[in-house]
């Protein structure tokens, strides 16, 4: 098992006591608990329904903690993820994407037929999408959110006219039930752009004739703006943030709303690895790489005694660092790094130790990607 050489001794032992091999990624219990509670409280205080994005962790243990903290349900990105969460026992799922997967839709339709209490919603932004859902619907209809996007963004109709065409098709189709509007503001670059976009979503919502509608928005960068701008919205506003659960030392540390509002999220993930070589003065090669830590939205962040180093590049199994001129680091040292972008961190580990503040392992969390 990656990172664990003695599973029977893992829980209850020190991370450095011999039950674990390196590199290993750990999650800090105190940070996880703080983050889960912080966003649950934020959502409650702002009248938002929290539906966290499970694609970040795909961990049944963390998903259960989010539900126990008050999450309405969970969001996923694919039919496969939705079916996995059903195996975890999740009863409310938003598939925050367009869906054209025949086998996936058939399987979800079967789950809906089997369990009347299972609630499933997905996005649609084209007539073709509506037709696909209709063709694979079972005894219960697929509930859909018509998605309105923005220029340069991901999915979603780009104009109100196109949006209303899709909404009308959904309302007319057999096996499809229109229940509201969806959007994604996370790719926008400023609060002003987000405000304009949110008001476009509200305008779209006003054109729908839907009882008790849903307005679903997502992302971990602008939920403060969402909380202010949608405070008076009469729809059920569902927030799909995902990365908050573990936060990070890079991408989200710089972009979290808590750089603008009171409070904080805490980086929960940390990678430990050995310095393998000092091949020339000021250069270190460390024994972890792309298979162990994310690198798509910033490189790993040196911590602790190497906090003044710089990661130059990450290779398959190696990280190359530029050390400070007076660095005492030597080959064989065990050093640690924070990560940037948690949504591509958990998928690299099937089992991850959870540690307390003294690096005693208190639990093991599993992931299913």
TrEMBL record:
The family this protein is said to belong to: Belongs to the DSD1 family.
Pfam family, one: D-ser_dehydrat
Protein name according to UniProt: D-serine deaminase, pyridoxal phosphate-dependent
Domain D-serine dehydratase-like, first and last residues per copy: 268-356
Keywords: Lyase
Classification via InterPro entries: Ala_racemase_N, D-amino_acid_metab_enzyme, D-ser_dehydrat-like_dom, D-ser_dehydrat-like_sf, PLP-binding_barrel
GO molecular function: lyase activity
Lineage of the species this protein comes from: Bacteria, Bacillati, Actinomycetota, Actinomycetes, Streptosporangiales
Source species, domain of life: Bacteria
């Amino acid at each position: 098992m990656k990172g664990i050489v003695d599973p029977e001794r893992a829980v209850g032992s020190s991370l450095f006591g011999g039950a674990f091999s390196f590199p290993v990624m750990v999650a800090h219990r105190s940070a996880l608990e703080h983050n889960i509670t912080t966003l649950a409280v934020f959502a409650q205080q702002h009248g938002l329904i929290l539906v966290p994005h499970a694609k970040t962790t795909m961990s049944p243990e963390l998903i259960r903690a989010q539900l126990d903290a008050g999450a309405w349900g969970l969001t996923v990105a694919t039919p496969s993820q939705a079916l996995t969460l059903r195996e975890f026992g999740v009863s409310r799922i938003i598939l925050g994407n367009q869906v054209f997967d025949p086998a996936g839709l058939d399987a979800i339709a079967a789950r809906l037929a089997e369990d009347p209490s299972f609630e499933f919603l997905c996005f649609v932004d084209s007539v073709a999408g509506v037709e696909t859902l209709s063709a694979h619907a079972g005894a219960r209809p697929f509930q859909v959110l018509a998605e309105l996007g923005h220029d340069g963004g991901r999915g979603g109709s780009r104009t109100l006219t196109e949006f209303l065409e899709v909404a009308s098709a959904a309302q007319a189709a057999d096996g499809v039930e229109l229940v509201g509007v969806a959007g994604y503001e996370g790719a926008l670059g400023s609060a002003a752009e987000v405000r304009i976009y949110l008001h476009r979503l509200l305008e779209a919502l006003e054109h729908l004739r839907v009882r008790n509608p849903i307005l679903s928005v997502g992302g971990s960068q602008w939920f403060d703006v969402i909380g202010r701008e949608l405070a008076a919205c009469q729809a059920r506003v569902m927030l799909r943030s995902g990365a908050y659960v573990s936060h990070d030392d890079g991408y989200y540390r710089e972009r979290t709303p808590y750089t603008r509002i009171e409070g904080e999220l805490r980086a929960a993930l940390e990678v430990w690895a050995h310095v393998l070589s000092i091949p020339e003065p000021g250069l270190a090669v460390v024994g972890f790489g792309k298979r162990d830590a994310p690198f798509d939205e910033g490189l790993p962040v040196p911590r602790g005694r190497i906090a003044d180093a710089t990661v130059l590049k990450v290779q398959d199994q190696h990280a190359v660092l530029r050390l400070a001129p007076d660095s005492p680091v030597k080959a064989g040292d065990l050093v640690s790094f924070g990560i940037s972008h948690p949504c591509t961190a958990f998928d690299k580990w099937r089992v991850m130790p959870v540690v307390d503040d003294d690096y005693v392992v208190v639990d093991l969390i599993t992931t299913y990607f």
